[in-house]
């Protein structure tokens, strides 16, 4: 038994190609499909859930469906993949597909479900575009879909194999052993769980499933704060049905469904070994995976160069400030070079990477890890691009609060 590892996707993604006839068709129709994709996807989901109500009841997050986030994620992923197939200069979608594969495995998605998605997606395309979907157009986009689906199926199959489980067999019983308030908005939950959870990597998450009052089993991902052979801890902020159910109704001794740890926002081995400097940037509850990473660095006993940058509404709302400061103190005691920067919106403060670079607070050649709200992450990424010649980041790794996969390609 091993943890769910990140699949090797880059070569397989770039080697995907359309037939010449289909490539010409996709290139010609991509603007039309793209212009109507936000009309197509809600119809697709409505059709699929009408025929397969178990998917919206037990697998898909209803909050993401209501907000439209999941629809936009699907639209962006298909369009991004199609663009890569017809434009050699387009960004490689490997990061997007890796993130999707991890999310799918954390939900127990299996290969047979791709056919369900295909049938209802293409029915929705025909419903919206009508006679514009000639047999040639349908055939070309069918190839796009299956090239993307087969890439994901292969990656997910490998992840299940590496974890030593059958496809979809990722749910385990977890029993609440403790809960404690970190702030007025955030509570830490600790669960006992099988030894498999000890194999988690710093930065990964678990899906937690709770049965709601209407009988639906809803799932949501939560980054790991801590983990061991006895169980794991997560931090929960009130936002959505699952979080509300955990905060309002889950008591010590109650059980939930928890999936094996997944996620590709994990610390590089060079960082853990103290060879590569690291910058951890978060906003709000995005501090959760960062505390897991800091815990891992403390446990490694190395002397890395670490900069932690966090933005929050107020000092009181920074729920994981105390635990973060404890880990940073332990790293300093072990000889690490440590910088910590906080900014609070209530006080009119923002994160200014240009100023931090001028003050040598952020190291050159670091591995960057970002987690937070979409607007915050877009700002940080734009600043990183502006300061790229100065900071020369070794890598920029992103985890998003919502299924907005298109941000990974920007």
UniProtKB/TrEMBL annotation:
Keyword NAD part of the UniProt annotation: yes
One Gene Ontology molecular-function label: heme binding
A Pfam family this chain is assigned to: Globin
Enzyme Commission number(s) from the entry: 1.14.12.17
Sorted UniProt keywords: Dioxygenase, Heme, Iron, Metal-binding, NAD, Oxidoreductase, Oxygen transport, Transport
Sequence ranges assigned to domain FAD-binding FR-type in this UniProt record: 169-268
One GO BP: cellular response to nitrosative stress
Every Globin domain range: 17-157
Catalyses which reaction(s): 2 nitric oxide + NADH + 2 O2 = 2 nitrate + NAD(+) + H(+); 2 nitric oxide + NADPH + 2 O2 = 2 nitrate + NADP(+) + H(+)
Top-level lineage group: Bacteria
Stated family: In the C-terminal section; belongs to the flavoprotein pyridine nucleotide cytochrome reductase family. Belongs to the globin family.
Name used for this protein in its record: nitric oxide dioxygenase
Organism of provenance: Corynebacterium glyciniphilum AJ 3170
């Amino acid at each position: 038994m091993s943890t769910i590892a990140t699949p090797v996707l880059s070569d397989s993604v770039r080697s995907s190609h359309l037939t010449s006839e289909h490539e010409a068709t996709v290139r010609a129709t991509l603007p039309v499909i793209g212009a109507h994709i936000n009309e197509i996807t809600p119809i697709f989901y409505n059709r699929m859930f009408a025929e397969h109500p178990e998917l919206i009841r037990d697998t898909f997050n209803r909050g993401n469906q209501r907000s439209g986030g999941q629809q936009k994620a699907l639209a962006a992923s298909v369009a991004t993949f199609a663009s890569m197939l017809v434009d050699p200069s387009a960004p490689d979608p490997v990061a997007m597909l890796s993130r999707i594969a991890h999310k799918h495995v954390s939900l127990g998605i299996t290969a047979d479900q791709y056919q369900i998605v295909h049938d209802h997606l293409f029915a929705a395309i025909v419903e919206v575009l009508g006679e514009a979907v000639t047999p040639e157009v349908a055939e070309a986009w069918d190839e796009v879909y299956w090239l993307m689906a087969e890439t994901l199926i292969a990656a997910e199959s490998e992840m299940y194999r590496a974890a030593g489980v059958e496809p979809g067999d990722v749910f385990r019983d977890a029993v609440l052993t403790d809960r404690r308030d970190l702030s007025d908005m955030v509570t830490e939950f600790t669960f006992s769980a099988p030894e498999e959870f000890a194999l988690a990597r710093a930065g990964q998450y678990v899906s937690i499933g709770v049965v709601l009052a209407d009988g639906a089993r809803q799932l949501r991902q939560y980054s790991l704060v801590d983990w061991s052979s006895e169980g794991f801890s997560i931090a929960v902020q009130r936002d959505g049905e699952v979080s509300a159910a955990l905060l309002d109704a889950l008591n010590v001794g109650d059980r939930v469904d928890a999936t094996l740890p997944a996620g590709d926002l994990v610390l590089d081995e060079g960082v853990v070994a103290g060879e590569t400097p690291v910058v951890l940037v978060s906003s709000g509850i995005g501090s959760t995976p960062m505390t897991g990473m800091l815990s891992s660095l403390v446990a490694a006993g190395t002397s890395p160069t670490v900069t932690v940058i966090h933005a929050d509404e107020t000092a009181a709302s920074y729920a994981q400030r105390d635990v973060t400061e404890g880990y940073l103190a332990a790293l300093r005691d072990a000889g690490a070079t440590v910088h910590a920067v906080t900014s609070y919106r209530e006080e009119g403060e923002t994160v200014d990477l240009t100023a931090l670079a001028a003050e040598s607070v952020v190291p050159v050649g670091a591995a960057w890890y970002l987690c937070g709200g979409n607007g915050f992450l877009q700002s940080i990424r734009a600043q990183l691009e502006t300061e790229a010649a100065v900071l020369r980041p070794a890598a920029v790794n992103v985890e998003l609060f919502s299924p907005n996969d298109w941000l990974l390609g920007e």
